[in-house]
Hints:
Structural class: alpha/beta
Number of domains: 2
Mean pLDDT: 89
CATH architecture of the largest domain: 3-Layer(aba) Sandwich
Low-confidence stretches: none
Largest sheet: 6 strands, mixed
Amino acid sequence: MTIKNSSPSSVADQIRDLLDQGSRAVLVTIVESERLVVGSKLLVRETGDASGDLGDRDLNDAVVADAADFLSARDDTRTTRIGEFAPALEGLSQSLILFERIEAEPHLVIAGAGHVGASLARLAALVGYRVTLIDDRAEFVARQMFQSPAEAQINLVAAKSWADAIGDAIGNGHGVSIAIITRGHKQDEDCLRAALSSNPAYLGMIGSKRRTNIVLEKLREEGYDSAHLNRVRAPIGLDIGAVSPEEVALAILAEIIAERRGGKGGSLSVWRRDR
Length: 275
């Protein structure tokens, strides 16, 4: 672990760099304390390296250790007393600190702009995702098809090559979810090959069990790593009995959100019925 002292402006610059790189970090700020300077900050990267200073070396070390747990918990923010996670620091136990997740806005790449893909793009944009909708049929991703204020931010891509368009949209894969919802085996295969070359946060493919198994088995025979193929959610989405394109889109987005937030996708009322 390395901790470097940084000025507030330097920390802000580092946050911008992290977001540009698609990396994650935790920004920790003193918000209430009698012994520490309120507003002091420590930026902890997912690698464990840190920049800044909270005013106490032992506290810095304790925060770095706790930051990994915060990232894995999927919360956006958390306010806590130091004594709750570092009881050994008795003199600082009542000081209040804020943990904030630093990561790029969630990005959903949708391959296929048919009824389900278009519905998924609209729904994802509505709940705050940055959305890229790709199709090799230009008329399916024409701007006049997506004109409402919520849809105006959807990035529409008419693909000459599925592989190139998918690769460009995914980038390094950090924070990116990919939903493959094309019209046939060939398009599914092209998109899946491109997607597997990155390490997306979520990768799913629509289709029946038979259709998706055919595609996955073909790629396995081509030499793609089984561990990577086993991460593909296929058929895509949660089982909510969806029928209409809008319902299928909802089932897909629910699974993507569950993966991002660490949810289990079950009924919240089970705990009561099982008592």
